[in-house]
Fold this protein.
Amino acid sequence: MTVTEETVTEESFIRFRGVSKTFPRPDGKGTFVAVENLSFDIAKGEIVAVLGKTGCGKSTMFNLLAGLIEPSSGTVDVVGHDPFTEFGHFRGKIGIVFQNDRLMPWRTAIDNVVLGLEILDRKKDEARAIAQRWLDRLGLKGHENDYPHALSGGMRQRVSIARAFAVEPDILLCDEPFSALDEMTARDLRAEFVRLVKQAGKTAVFITHHMNEAMDVGDRVLVFHRPARIAYEARMDEAARTSGRKAVQDEILKVLSLDATVATP
């Protein structure tokens, strides 16, 4: 379905209201619009996959949500707080998984997972116990003392996921976390990620430019056009994942084909 005012509810965990973001052009001649009048809600415990072509504004939306940049207009509300002006409030409440694992090469797997807990001033023994539990849950038992160079790409990304979950955040933000992996490894990690999010009752926003990944991960898929605005929305219930999957795929492809490919200034 296409997004309407009915899809924006009064009660939500994450709320964008009429958000726009402009940036100055590199040549100094005016500005360009990255996000335009964007409104959507995300409920507690929901996984929302955001899909769109490269340059459509997905990452800008991600940075607005993470509090890394301020909207030019409109409001971003996360559990009743502004992530930009109240950035400190979200310390330990948001976990981020990036496209690259961003592990510190001089730290072992467990020391990389412990890092976020150290920042939150957790006691050393407690932090290591938590880190070990998450490494075990992600199939890395016996590799806790390995350095990143000794781990495969999939194993390093598992460490990154363990690091995000270990701080027990309310919200997980994922920016194309499996795009650098081979498809079989990515498929396994997608399934594991969804299972962990659901088990822990977390809320997640998952950025991707792969249609099937969005449909596999999301309870709901938002398809962006550039500048970032919702062109199509699909709820991935059981029917949409099985008998109706082809129809959803066809609709997404139709919408994406209408989004002209324009290089980012």
Residues 1-10, 261-265 have pLDDT under 50 and may be disordered. The longest strand covers residues 31-42. The chain is about 35% helix and 25% strand.
